[in-house]
Amino acid sequence: VPDAVEIYRKVLAKQPDHSVVVETEGFLTNLANLLKSGRDQYSPLSGRELIKRKVKLLVSMAGKFPSGKEYNLSTDSESSKIVFNNWPTPVVFDGFEIGVEIKTGLPLTKDDRIKNDPVKDVFSICIPKSPEDSLGRMSWDEVAALVAVKGYRPLFNLRSGKIIIHDDGSNGWDYKGHGQYYLTPRASAKEVQEIINKLMMHQPN
Question: Cα(first)–Cα(last) distance of the chain, in Å?
């Protein structure tokens, strides 16, 4: 299986300039390694130069805002520091506090029309295992995917600044910084979860 950095470089090199939205829903290890990568058979550019030329936005499910400690950012905090201190395009953070209020997946598990769907299978298996998921699973990653594809409007607003990552993996926020943003609610959690549930249940032709 090709290394993640090789796949990133191969894919990015083929894209139009400033056209790619990168979305992360886990640790920042691969993106840190991409930033540190050098020229190869796919591009003469360094990792940072390749990102700057091809990527227009990074949407990351990471952090807790305006401050706190979140799993994706803190588990490999060194990679998180490398990425968020050196990423050359705007960054939008989907923080822990956003997805924790948005519960999705339950309508999908109850829709008998939907067959042979691995997403439905996962929710059907996992939701009954946790009492806190009785109204649906908290939707950190789904929000990040929604924002990466559809944009943050009209469901969210942005607070500008720059993330501060502490040595223990927790984070703060510098409101005087530039180029980074975290989501704040504009629509209700119920409105957002209805949109995500509808998209989850969409059946392609």
Answer: 31
The backbone torsions φ and ψ at residue 2, rounded to the nearest 5 degrees and listed phi first, read: -65, 150
Tokens in use for 144? 């990040």
Mean pLDDT of 95-120: 95
User: In the chain, what are the helix, strand and coil shares in percent, each to the nearest 5?
Assistant: 45, 20, 40
Tokens read off for 132: 């806190």
Cis check for the bond before 154: say yes or no (omega within 30 of 0).
yes
Going by the DSSP 8-state scheme, the letter that residue 16 receives in this structure is P
Rounded distance between C-alpha atoms, residue 160 and residue 153, angstroms = 15
State the pTM of this model.
0.94
pLDDT on residue 15: 98
- Check residue 177 and report its DSSP letter: -
The pLDDT tens digits of the residues spanning 11-38 come to 999 999 999 999 999 999 999 999 999 9
According to DSSP, the β-strands at 180-185 and 156-165 are: antiparallel
